[in-house]
Amino acid sequence: MRVRFLGTGTSTGVPEIGCECDVCRSTDKRDNRLRASVIVYIEGKSILIDCGPDFREQMLGIAFLPIDALLITHEHYDHVGGIDDLRPFCKFGDIEIYLEQYVSEALKSRIPYCFTEYKYPGIPIIALNEISLEPFKVAGKIEIIPIRLMHGTLPIVGYRIGNFAYLTDLKTIPEEEYHKLEGLDVLVINALRIREHISHQNLDQALEKIKRIAPKRTYLTHMNHHFGLHAEMEKILPENVFVSFDGLELDIL
């Protein structure tokens, strides 16, 4: 399995428009963060997790291959705003999207032209597959384990693929979901900033969950400009906890 971070930033990205803080003015490319998303390459298949408004830019430097499945964590724009830009990938066939029922309804209301009976040429051809919290398979063979997360009071979904798990935008993890995260080689988890936030966990809260889950390696994502400079934050993190950055690739056995 290979995982590529397409974006590691929060909803406003980094730099944030109009901001002159040290992070936003940084010349370290690792401090430039597009909206959070990853693509997972496994057994000859490509699985995209979330498709935000930076999707087109994120895919320009990557080999043009089929997207065999798109897993959506929740309906917020920074996670679904790039779905229209899936159009070029429809040359390979319909895009199979996996998402909860309420997210499916949200997409139908936001991009109704994709779901009309008579579709005009050029729109993305997408198929919505509604999921529960039960494991399911994509591309005919890859098992996906959904994990319930709470984004403040909003129920959202994280995903486990083999010994890799991707959890973003969470504030809390329901107690009954922790068993799904046992024995991980790599965990990706959000850490918005240092200070408390109403619906996202901060760095300390992320580190508490990492300690409990005990993966071999952890990469922090979905960070805003208040998280701190990449180079400085890496120095203070525990062993085997790292700050991810756009374009980072991980090989997972």
Plain-language structure description:
The protein has 253 residues and is of the alpha/beta class. The protein is 15% helix and 28% strand. It contains five helices and 14 strands. Strands 6-5-4-3-2-1-14 form a seven-stranded mixed beta sheet. The chain is globular and about 55 Å long. The mean pLDDT is 97.
Rg (CA only): 17 Å
Taking pLDDT < 50 over at least 5 consecutive residues as the criterion, the unreliable ranges are: none
Question: Percent range for helical residues?
Answer: 10-25%
| Sequence of secondary-structure elements | EEEHEHEHEEEEEEHEHEE
Counted beta strands: 14
Major sheet, described briefly?
7 strands, mixed
Mean pLDDT: 97
Strand order of the largest sheet: 6-5-4-3-2-1-14
Number of helices: 5
| CA(first)-CA(last) distance | 6 Å
Q: What would the principal axes of the Cα set say about the shape?
A: globular
Q: How much strand?
A: 25-35%
Structural class per helix/strand content? Answer: alpha/beta
Overview in brief:
The protein has helices spanning 55-59, 77-80, 101-110, 203-213, 230-236, and strands at 2-7, 37-42, 45-49, 69-71, 95-99, 126-130, 136-138, 142-151, 154-161, 164-167, 186-190, 217-221, 241-243, 249-251. The chain is α/β, with parallel strands linked by helices.
